[in-house]
Each structure stands twice: as C-alpha cells, then as structure tokens.
Specification:
The protein has 347 residues and is an alpha/beta fold. The protein is built from twelve helices and twelve strands. It has a ten-stranded mixed β-sheet, sandwiched between helices. Strands 6-7 form a two-stranded antiparallel ribbon. Helix 1 crosses helix 10 and helix 8 packs parallel to helix 9. The longest helix is centred in the middle third of the chain and has 16 residues. Bound molecules: nicotinamide-adenine-dinucleotide, 3-isopropylmalic acid and magnesium ion. Nicotinamide-adenine-dinucleotide binds next to loops. Its cofactor is Mg(2+); Mn(2+). Keywords: Amino-acid biosynthesis, Branched-chain amino acid biosynthesis, Cytoplasm, Leucine biosynthesis, Magnesium, Manganese, Metal-binding, NAD, Oxidoreductase.
C-alpha cells in the first residue's frame, strides 16, 4: 500500500510527522510512504506550489496524507503561485469533489467545547462539502471600474451535474447515519443556490428514506451554536462548507481535532486536518496533531478499506483525550510530540 505524504508549510510537517509515526506503528503489510513537496516549501524549492513530480506521486499512490499549506511571506506572489494553490490544484486535478468533515463530541469530554456542555453533548454531525466548484474555481481577477476604481471579482457558479453528484454523496451518507440531510444554501439571494436547492430536491426523489431539509447558511451558522445536536448530515457548497466546518470544530472543542477526507469517484482520496499552517505557532512544537492523526484513520478507512485499523487510531486518540492529554488549543500543556507519544502508547 502506497501512501503519499505531503507535509507542506508551518505546522504541516510537525503534525504530519506524528500521523506518520502512528501509521508506521500499525505494522501494515507493504506500507510504503512517499514524500512530496507542496505549498510554500515547494515554491521555494521548485518555483511552483504544486510541482509535476508531486502530482505524479499523488497519482501513483492509493491515498494522500496532507499536512497544511500557507506562508504569509509568499502572499504577495501572483495567485497561481501562492502556497494554497497546492491544495486547490490537487483537489481539482484529482477530481476530489467530495469533502467529508465529521465533527463529533468525544464522549465524556463535553467540557472541551466553548459551548455549554449540555448544548455540545449531542454533537455528531458530518459536513459534506463540495470541493471542485463554486466561487473558488470561477473566473476571478482585478479590473478597473468606469470611474477608475480598483475592483476584484470572483464568479460563483454551480452546474446541475456538479450539484447532483455531491447531493448523492450527501444522501448516501445520510442513509448510513440517522437518515437526516440538511442542505445549506443562500437561495433567498443567490441564483447559484437556487439551482443547488432545485437539484437537491430532484435527487431527493431517489432517497425516500432520507428526510431532507433546507437551511440558509446564515441561519445554519446560528443553529450550529444554538442547537448543534439537531444536525446529522449537512450538504453544502465549497465556500459555505469551508466556513461552517471551522465553526463546527469549535463546537466540538478545537480546530486541532477535526479531520477530513476529500474523495473522488474512485478510491483515491486526500486526507488532511481542516486547519491551516498556523504560522503563529509553527516551529514551536505546540500544534495539536490529533486532527492529522484522525485524518490518517480516515485514509485507512476510505482509500484502503481498513476499518479495524482506522478504529484503532480513533480509539487511541479518544483514550488519550479522556486521559487528559491535551494540547494548548484545548487549554492543556501537551506539545505535538507528547501528544503523538500518548496516542502511540494507546494504539
Ligand atoms: N488546507 C490547508 O492547507 C489550509 C487550511 C486553512 C488555512 N490554510 C492556510 O494556513 C495559513 C494560516 O491560516 P489561518 O491562520 O487563517 O488558519 P489556521 O487554521 O492555520 O489557524 C487558525 C488558528 O488556529 C490555530 N490552530 C490551527 N491548527 C492548530 C493545531 N493543530 N493545533 C493548535 N492550534 C491550531 C492557529 O494557531 C491559529 O490561531 C494561511 O496561509 C491559510 O491560507 C491552509
Ligand atoms: C487553504 C484553503 C484553500 C482551504 C479552503 O478554503 O478550502 C482551507 O481553508 C480548507 O478548509 O481546507
Ligand atoms: Mg478552511
């Protein structure tokens, strides 16, 4: 089994190292890890955030473990050379259109959240985020208005095929859980969202066992804090899913806990924490690697069908948390390596 490891920038290499140690400790037969450069690190070395050799490594692998990209000192580069283009390029080039971002409160650890424990207690939700379209990939640029003012623009659009394929992912995910799907949009204002809603309603006819509801994204942001336990599966577009998943992470406890899977039509997937390169704590050994370790579990489950091994990792993380192993993001004092050690001890 060949796994590509793209550590990236900032805390990316620190958290990825711990996830790799966990993968290695499982004794998986034929495990082969192949490293590749992405992000600002790749730009500095090769002049591009997503070099061809990295793409080749990705395509030759069965799954990709990704750290994070982003380097503020490179934010002045033309957009196509900025570090973030590595992750955007991989998602697009590899057809990784379905982003699964689960947010579940760890049992007995309701006090990790900044919400009141009785509000957070029931959180067990899954955000299904479309990852290949929306305002992220539309035409964009800078121009001048007739009055000579600078104007930035980004075209938001979805076609019906793009909405249909992510809607199916959402409905199937709901079928495997408690059969409730909430589609989040902004159909009261955006044509993109009206089409989204129309198509989701059409697809719903194929899933009579799933209860479909719709919610505007502003209300969804509010309900995620008011009554997060009421959500099961949320299906939404690229931009709304990005924002709501960071919010959901804090409902659970910390952005350092949330893993993700970005899936294609085939078995190739990319697995990464939902957080970024965290330049404010990079290089200090302070980052919580649990989100990346949990992403490695998702990799084993979704790309290699190794459910038992995935659960071993998830139980070890939950046990470490229950035993009081907490990073600074959770008000604790354990560093990156100490958290990795603690998970390894409990595998
Ligand atoms: N998929 C990705 O690679 C990805 C995702 C988000 C942001 N980014 C990039 O990362 C850079 C920083 O962005 P940002 O500051 O908005 O978001 P961020 O997620 O990097 O950090 C936000 C806050 O959360 C904290 N944090 C994040 N991960 C943590 C962890 N594992 N443990 C403890 N604390 C953690 C950070 O210290 C910071 O205070 C930017 O260049 C951005 O574009 C990349
Ligand atoms: C780094 C950025 C391009 C990325 C996104 O917006 O998708 C990140 O915020 C994420 O959540 O994975
Ligand atoms: Mg994000």
């Amino acid at each position: 089994m060949k796994i590509a490891v793209f550590a990236g920038d900032g805390i990316g290499p620190e958290v990825t190292r711990e996830a790799v140690r966990v993968l290695q400790a499982l004794g998986l037969p034929g495990l082969e890890l192949v490293e590749g450069d992405v992000g600002g690190a790749a730009y500095r070395k090769h002049g591009h955030p997503l070099p061809q050799q990295t793409l080749d490594i990705a395509k030759a692998s069965g799954g990709i473990l990704f750290g994070a990209v982003g380097d503020f000192s490179l934010d002045g580069l033309e957009r196509h050379l900025r570090p973030e283009q590595a992750i955007l390029g991989l998602r697009k080039e590899l057809g990784l259109f379905a982003n699964l971002r689960p947010a579940t409160v760890f049992q007995g650890l309701e006090d990790l959240t900044t919400l009141r424990p009785e509000v957070a207690r029931d959180i067990d939700l899954l955000i299904v985020r479309e990852l290949n379209g929306d305002v992220y990939f539309g035409e964009k640029g800078m121009r001048q208005t007739a009055e000579g003012l600078r104007e930035g623009y980004d075209i938001m659009s979805y076609n019906e095929a793009e909405v249909r394929r992510i809607a199916h992912v959402g409905f199937r995910a709901a079928q495997g859980r408690s059969k409730k799907l909430c589609s989040v949009d902004k159909a009261n204002v955006l044509e993109t969202s009206q089409l989204w809603r129309d198509v989701v309603i059409e697809v719903a006819k194929e899933y009579p066992d799933v209860e479909l509801s719709h919610m505007y994204v502003d209300n969804a942001a509010m309900q995620l804090v008011k009554n997060p336990g009421a959500f099961d599966v949320i299906v939404t577009g690229n931009l709304f899913g990005d924002i709501l998943s960071d919010q959901a992470s804090m409902c659970v406890g910390s952005i350092g806990l949330l893993a993700s899977a970005s899936l294609s039509e085939g078995s190739l997937g990319l697995y990464e924490p939902i957080h970024g390169s965290a330049p404010d704590i990079a290089g200090k050994g302070l980052a919580n690697p649990m989100a990346t370790i949990l992403s490695a579990a998702m990799l084993l489950r979704h790309s290699f069908g190794l459910e038992a091994e995935a659960r071993r990792i998830e139980h070890a993380v939950a046990k470490a948390l229950a035993d009081g192993i907490k990073g600074g993001d959770l008000g604790g004092s354990h560093g990156t390596v100490a958290i990795g050690d603690a998970v390894l001890e409990r595998l």
